[in-house]
Structure formats: C-alpha cells, structure tokens
Design brief:
The chain is built from seven helices and 17 strands. The strands form four sheets. Strands 3, 5, 6, 8, 9, 16 and 17 form a seven-stranded mixed β-sheet that branches. A six-stranded parallel β-sheet has the order 12-11-10-13-14-15, with helices on both faces. Pfam families: ADH_N. One of its GO terms (molecular function) is bacteriochlorophyllide-a dehydrogenase activity. Keywords: Oxidoreductase.
C-alpha cells in the first residue's frame, strides 16, 4: 500500500513523495487523511534542525501530529471503530525503516493502531486539527492550583488557552508584541507588556516557547506565584535567582495531552463552552506544502495553516 507524504529530508529540505506503508496488523486501522495542520512550534524546530536530541529523532522524517481523516479499513481485532468513522490522528509511524514517522501525520494515508485515534464529529472538518493544541492547553491548565491570569502569546495556542480559561471560569489577560496578532480576542484583553503595570499575577501561562522571557515574567508574579512552562523550549532554561527567591516563585512544566484531555475538549466544543472558530487562517493544497510551511513559519498573519489532502489521489 502506497501513500503520498510530506518528508523533511534534512533540515530546511522538504519533498512530497510516494512512500510504502507498513502492512496493517489486526489491531490497526487504515485512515485516509483529509486535513493536517502545521505546528509552528515543534514542527518549526524539526524544520530548522533545532529540535533537542531525543530517542528516535533522525531525518528523513514525516512530520505532523494534528491530522483528521476517515477510517477506510479496520483490522480483525478492532471492535471500537468501523469504516467510515471520522477520526483525529495524533501521528503515525508506518513508513518503514528508512523514513521515520516523527510525528508522521502529514500523509494522504496512514496505518495506525486503533487505540491511538479518536472518533470525532465529522462536522468539525478541518477545525478538528485544532484539538491537539486545545488538549495540550487543557492538560497544562489542569495541573495547577489556580487558573492563569496572564497568558504569554496570542498565537493559536495562546488563543485556545485564553478561551479554555474563560470556559473554566477565569478571566485572562494576554500579552502580545506583534501588531498583526493583537486582534481577534473573544472577551479578554490583549496588551503589549509595556502597557500592563501589574506585578501581582498569581499564575502566568507561557504559550510562547521563548525561554528568554523568564526573568521578565518572574518580575510580574505575586509572591508565591507560578509560571507554567507550556511551550516547547529548544534552548536551556535559566533564570536570575534572587528575584525568583524573593518572590518564592514556582515553575511548572506541562507536557503533552492525554486522550482524556482531548475527549474533554471535544465535549466542551459540543456543549458550546469551547469555540474552535476563527483560528484557521489558511488552507493550502498538500502538493503546495513548501509554500504552506514557509507561510506557517514566517507570516505573522498566518495563525494556523491547514493542508488539504483531498487534492492528492
């Protein structure tokens, strides 16, 4: 079985080429992908070759962990899914020994364990690609003792975080320094940090992934306050100790979402507490992936780029 997939051959070298898929096992499903979105965080690190080394990281690789498609075939041991089911796919590793699936979702077709995919409402269409980011934000919000009062960054991750804080009863302020991303708030304030005098935030949520901001954020904490490190940082994190000592600052790292987080985001969208509208700004045919990746990484007006795989056979 063949597929067409996006391959990072090396850092800053992309192709869309045919790959041979692994034969599905009894516990696998075959999914035809309709949309996959581009992560401007971790995928950018892979693209630029700045991803910190961890087991399994090597090129060439198929990126993508925010894909949506339809189950076309199920293994003999799969009972929870049927052909025709719309699913969210958080990645796949099905391309044989020469091309790694890291994270493997940017492909017209994937073979993936049935236990990894999650059934979704088909009416969500391309907006379902946002569920992984929403679930990551929800996972980070759940780990603390207080909801964040300040969110750093008004990209799509910061916006989803702000919406979830509102859904959970909070009232966030968001810092953004790029004029192109100041708009689009849904009932919360977006400020340049220079225009915000507060220095008593009990919880600050960093959605920027910029480790250089840490000292400035410590100065804005209330005593005993917490900074949630929810981005993925490619450089070592350090901070000046005396201000953090005086504030008795606490730092918390949030990792990736769990299936329960994603299921809860689906439920919150279904009952109207979480809107996924207005966040996808660009949709590109998958065969024009090179242009799409450049826009996703370099154009500040591009909040979220989605690849449309329906144009590929």
């Amino acid at each position: 079985m063949q597929t067409r997939a996006i391959v990072f051959e090396q850092p800053r070298q992309l192709s869309v080429r045919e790959l041979t898929l692994a034969a599905p096992s009894a516990s696998d499903v075959v999914v035809d992908i309709a949309w996959s979105s581009i992560s401007a965080g971790t995928e950018r690190l892979l693209w630029e070759g700045r991803m910190p080394m961890f087991p399994g990281l090597a090129y060439p690789l198929v990126p993508g962990y925010e894909s949506v498609g339809t189950v076309m075939k199920v293994g003999d041991g799969v009972t929870q899914l049927a052909p025709g089911t719309s699913v969210f796919v958080p990645g796949a590793n099905c391309y044989g020994p020469d091309v790694r699936g890291l994270f493997g979702g940017a492909s017209r077709r994937v073979v993936v364990p049935a236990s990894r995919v999650i059934a979704i409402d088909p009416s969500l269409k391309e907006r379902a690609t946002l569920l992984a980011l929403a679930a990551t934000a929800l996972h980070a919000l759940r780990g603390g003792s207080a909801l964040p009062e300040l969110v750093i960054g008004h990209g799509v991750f910061g916006r989803l975080t702000a919406r979830l804080i509102q859904a959970l009863g909070g009232s966030p302020t968001v810092w953004e320094r790029n004029d192109a991303r100041m708009g689009g708030a849904t009932g919360y304030a977006v400020l340049d940090a220079a225009n915000d005098p507060r220095k008593d935030y009990r919880c600050i949520f960093d959605a920027s992934g910029d480790a250089s901001l840490l000292d400035a954020l410590v100065m804005r904490l209330a005593k005993g306050g917490e900074i949630v490190l929810a981005g993925f940082y490619s450089t070592p994190i350090s901070f000046v100790f005396p201000p953090a000592f005086m504030k008795e600052a606490r730092f918390r790292i949030a990792a990736e979402w769990s299936p329960a987080d994603l299921a809860d985001c689906v439920a919150m969208h279904r009952d109207g507490r979480l809107s996924l509208d207005g966040l996808i700004t660009d949709i590109s045919p998958a065969e024009r992936a090179a242009d799409a990746y450049r826009a996703a990484f370099d154009d500040p007006h591009c909040l979220k780029m989605v690849l449309d795989w329906s144009t590929l056979s």
